[in-house]
Amino acid sequence: MLTKLRKKRKNIYFSGLLMFSDFLAVIIAFIFSYLFRFYSRLFSVPFGVPRWQDYIVPVLFIAGLLIYFINSRGLYKPDPAKKFIDQAFPLIKCTCITMLIVFAGTFFYREVSYSRLLLFIIWFSIGVLLVFFRYLLNIFYLQNILPRIRKKIIIVCKPESVEHIQKYNTYFTHYGTIAGFVSIRKQVQEKTEIPCLGHIDEFEHILDSLKPDEVILADLELPRKRITTLIVESEKRLIKFKIVADLLDIMIQQFELENIDGLNLIKIKESPLTLASNRFIKRLIDICGSFFGIVLLSPFLLAVAVLVKLGSRGPVFFSQERVGEDGRIFKIYKFRTMQQDAEAHTGPVFVKKDDERCTSLGKTLRKYNIDELPQLFNVLRGEMSLVGPRPERPYFVEQFKDDIPRYMSRHHIKSGITGWAQVHGLRQGTAIDERVKYDLYYVENWSAWLDIKIIFLSFFALKNAY
Length: 466
Description:
- With 466 residues, the chain is of the alpha/beta class.
- The chain has helices at residues 4-39, 56-72, 85-108, 116-145, 162-166, 169-175, 203-210, 224-236, 248-251, 276-311, 360-367, 375-380, 394-403, 432-444, 448-458, and strands at residues 151-157, 176-183, 196-199, 214-217, 240-243, 255-260, 263-268, 317-323, 329-335, 385-387, 416-418.
């Protein structure tokens, strides 16, 4: 078993390897781009081949600036639980920012005339190589480094909470194994798969004997003073202490500090979309995306409409009232996927897997999210956005707003055809409180880049689509 210091060093070395691979990607990209631009037969060279030495300083500048941006995004810190796509997009974003700065610089620096085409080829090559190298190194990390630095974790909780904690196996699969739990109750009668290490009164002794890497507190019902003691005792032994945020992370996703005449106030973070400039950018994306989507997909939409009409009795389109931005009611449009008057006898209910009310064509349309495409017209009209929390029916909103903390906060922005929750497989049939967490994350962390990322991921987000 490696010591904590050696585990830390392995992560540091791997971070250095990531940084070196990014630098190498820039160098290789330049060599390839230079040869491809000036020595392939695809491009003419009317002014002759420039000296490669003239590009040394710009290439080193690109490498340094790129590494700076990647480091500022925390992408050199190994995070095995993060999906590769969540690393690839920020890498490409950093590449774009770096190259835009370089292009801007070439307009002001005139001592050497740099080939714009060469810089474009370098831009593309860096993006491809960065993602490719990161993919290979991630595989290397998961197979060769991670198994040797897995953490030993203990949990402080009630016995009945152990099963709930085990459901989050992604964290424990990637980061460590649960050595046992410390019970906050005197008597533990329940049998659990995870061994009980003792009572919370023995916490210090358990830490000294077991020497874990991490302590997770899964019960916030403990008095604040007791929680503080647990944290202090863990810190004394250089053991990381984490708290499972259940209701807390729904109530307050992020904090902002506001100072009024020396008085510090903590408030819930406001959405970036409260700024008019950001709303303009998002609306511009919506207009362009929906317009071109309708134009390009019009033959396909027409074909689907014909199939729906021929497949079963009833109208081609299905409209339904939904709750949108600021609680406004609007009509959403979809291709009809169910039998006509499907809720005549049941009233408002969620769609379930293998729902008998769905037509045979409707099941296919739902599986591939094709039934949602008519909402492009909702987007063009300004009632929805391409990306945002999925709108619910007024009947369900009335229920959820009382039962789910901060549920109505998702209505501060326009609803979307797709969203952060949907690309993570959280749709109807999944826990509403989990969906709200993802919706609130999107509301409070919006960016144009995040919208583009979600739109791209939506083409592959077929989990729980029914």
